[in-house]
Sequence to fold (510 residues):
Amino acid sequence: MNWFKAITLTTAITASSAMAEVAVIVHPSNAATVDQAEITRLFTGRGTAFSNGSKATPLNLAESAAARGEFDSKVLSKSSSQMKAYWSKLVFTGKGTPPKELSSDAEMKAAVAADATAIGYIDATAVDGTVKVLAKF
Amino acid sequence: MKKTCLATMVAVALCSVAAQAEVNINGFASIKAGKASSGDALYGYTDEIDFKNESLFAVQFQSDLGEKLSVTAQLMARGNNDFDAEFEWAFLTYQLDDAWRLNAGRLRTPFYKYSDFRDVGYAYDWLRTPQSVYNLGFDTIEGVSLYHSGSISDMQSNIQLVFGAYDGEVTLQGTKAPAQINNILGASWELSQDWLSVRVAYLVGKVTVDAPVFNPLFGALNGAGLNSITKAIDFDEDDGSFFGLGLNYDRNDWLMVAEYTHVKVKDTFYANQDSYYVSLGHRFDSLTPYISYEKDEDDAKPEIYAGLPANFPLLLPIASIVMGQEFENTSWNLGMRYDFHPAAAFKVELTSSENNMTNQKDSLIAVGVDLVF
Fold:
């Protein structure tokens, strides 16, 4: 019975978290467009510029933020553990540094609103006029 | 001594810049325990439970000096070295442009697919890299390395060119001997797309190994006018080469990794070594069970003494040294990774290894936690 409850609960949580949308955001002055492949490129350190050539500074949410797991699984198609394993390969071989991490949607919004090169993401419900939404997942 | 010097210099450089620039500190650790079956011995374990053999701690300092220059040093303490901390990596990085990067200092030699991060257990699923392949016994190089990263249509291309030297020890017939490998020149190329990657590596170098145990034999051979046999056995600036091929498949949570390597050192008694492994796993959310098969096949070189008369008094010792290199071993591993924490993975691996020459079987169970911080 307990097992059944646990499974039902897990399913309910999974279903509700699957509903949460992640919005990929940039500075309002940023005219770039991005697709999922390009976001993946920027957030895995394989690219440093938007497709129009302007510099891109990816910003990540900390693992404690709900939208982080959503972003990793929906946009990057990896679990947060897989992303950590990916970055540890680069960090400990001097080949790359992961994006800077911010602890909450509010901090992310403030950082993106203050930096014309920034690209980040937040829970879609947290979007306001200080940032520009490029895509939703 | 030279290496320590270099590492120290980089470390001092790092400390002196620390005052002005931001220093990133990252680390990783593995705590592993293992026990071989009664009477068995494998990978440094005996039938007594051991927590030290494969445990390690490492801290990395990286500092961006601006103007595309950065400095990195990694200090590692290994249990099998009594946790004495040593500089595993210490190098300067100069980012020439978006595609080209130059590293100089103490680097990891790019032999294998997992060479660069074989100590960072968190970065892969196995409890340890397959030992039939990852067995050269030396990992680092002092020199320079040029990296190029780019793309070819929808594939990512990573090329590494390396030049340098190794001055340390190699494992020869199970014992460590002082060695120098000079003029190491090599290249590796990895092509990858979403779920498939292929890697090829080729390195050459001039190998010198100082093994005094052979000196009486060489003296006797040279005394008998058989300097050519001495030359065919000893390691004196002899041509070594390494070829490696790797394949990685990761799609729909199925994981396949395979690697093949061929190692030889011309004009030495060192056997030509062929090794490979194939590993298959499946990711079930935070659980990743896997099974792998490994084989190491070393072909001795009896042609070294083929021309000697059957009654030649040194024939027996020469034959035993040369043929002592003949080796064939196969292993099966069954294991699992469990991501129980955002920064740590629990692992368990069972290994059964068989020496096909003696039919001696050894089995081992090891458990551990790999973490990054």
